[in-house]
Amino acid sequence: MSKSRAGVPPARAAAHGSWLALALIALFAQPALSEGSSADKFVAAAIDKGQYLGAVTLIARHGKVVSWKAHGRRELGSPDALEPDAIFRIYSMTKPITSVAALMLMEQGKFQLDDPVSKYLPEFGEVRVLAGGTADAPELRAPKRPMTIRQLFVHAAGLAGGEQTPPEAMRLIERAELHRATDLQSYVRMLSQVPLAADPGALFNYDGVHTNVLARLVEVWSGQRFDRYLQERIFAPLRMQDTGFTVPVSQRHRIAQMTATDAAGRLIPSATYAGVEPGRAINLYFSGAGGLYSTAADYLRFAQMLLEGGELEGVRILSRETVSLMMTNQLGTLEPPQLEFRPGEGFGLGGSVAIDPARRARVGSVGDFGWFGAASTYFTIDPREGLIAMLFMQHLPEGSPVEPPKLSGRFYTLVYQSLVQ
């Protein structure tokens, strides 16, 4: 995608270059899954029931792609099958990529994790916490401690927007209309005028505002626009040629249609901007929280780089130590310390970390790392098993009382059930 931004539309043959690139990941040839993966059968059955339009599943183990399949259709009312190289809006699966971009700059000495955010973004130097009152008459106080960069990675900087945000603080951030921001600099300027919902470091409150501030910091530290930094330092070196904030017009026929569910439980085209304008930028600014399009093949290369300790095919993106830090639960750094944000799971520098599989809702290993996107895309990296599993769909809940069941938990469980050694 970046090639079109540089003014060189990719050739049709290059559209499938990711297929060839995947072959280069194969390092070992031993069996890794039992025949006829039950995970794929489960996903195919859900599509046959009309719960989802289509899906791409991709499983790699010990550096070898052992299953890569497309199920269902690309578009409602069309007989065209979904292809394995289909392009998806990955939403919050953008966040781990943003985290890697920032950690690369940490390795260059541009910052330390516990530096105050205001050291690099002076807009946050006078930020206040909403202590009471209403959105119309707020009572404000100074925060108990400075907002740090680590807290942005961990969604614990006190910023309003997540599920733990009190109603009056939520009203204030909604009034800020951050969606009107035309770039990350204006986004941060608008956000810095909104009172914090909590003291920095006090609680985990997942929301994209944290990662968008981190994306702006990448611009400040690198001196480059965020999209250009990602392209030059991550996507090009890893040969993620179908990942970017837009899709070239010549490749938009590969985009999986975004669906929603009506009140009767039937699939319908999504009415969101991302559904109506496929291939266009999802935001006016380059959202580090959820702005990217990608493919299963491209995201595998990113995940494989992390699984191999920050290096893929001789290209080093991060040090092994930094990847280990990224995949380590950081919630113990909060005040007071927390162990988990949901049963059995902690949060690292940009994704969830399994800390107690016995208490988690799905099968996995201690230390597996991953995340998901709002439109039903999922990935997990299990260093203990040498495993990467991904499920890519395009369904965005829009308030229907009869949304289809989420497939990720059972999908992951069935992937593990299929492991043979």
Explain the overall architecture.
With 421 residues, this protein is of the alpha+beta class. 28% of the residues lie in helices and 15% in strands. It contains 13 helices and 15 strands. A seven-stranded antiparallel beta sheet has the order 2-1-15-14-13-12-11, with helices on both faces. Strands 3-8 form a two-stranded antiparallel ribbon. The longest helix is centred in the middle third of the chain and has 15 residues. The N terminus is likely disordered.
Which percent band covers the strand fraction?
5-15%
Number of strands: 15
Biggest beta sheet summary: 7 strands, antiparallel
Count up the helices: 13
Give me the secondary-structure category. Answer: alpha+beta
Using the CA coordinates, give the radius of gyration. Answer: 21 Å
Q: Topology of this protein?
A:
Layout: H1 2-5, H2 17-23, H3 38-48, E1 54-61, E2 64-72, E3 88-89, H4 94-107, E4 129-133, E5 138-141, H5 149-153, H6 167-176, H7 184-191, H8 208-222, H9 226-235, E6 259-261, E7 267-269, H10 273-276, E8 293-294, H11 296-307, E9 311-312, E10 315-316, H12 320-326, E11 345-347, E12 352-354, E13 369-373, E14 377-382, E15 387-392, H13 408-417
Helix pairs in contact: 2-11, 3-13, 4-8, 7-8
Question: Any descriptors?
Answer:
421 residues, alpha+beta, 7-stranded antiparallel β-sheet, two-stranded antiparallel sheet, 13 helices
Quickly describe the structure:
The chain is α+β, with helices and mostly antiparallel strands and 421 residues long.
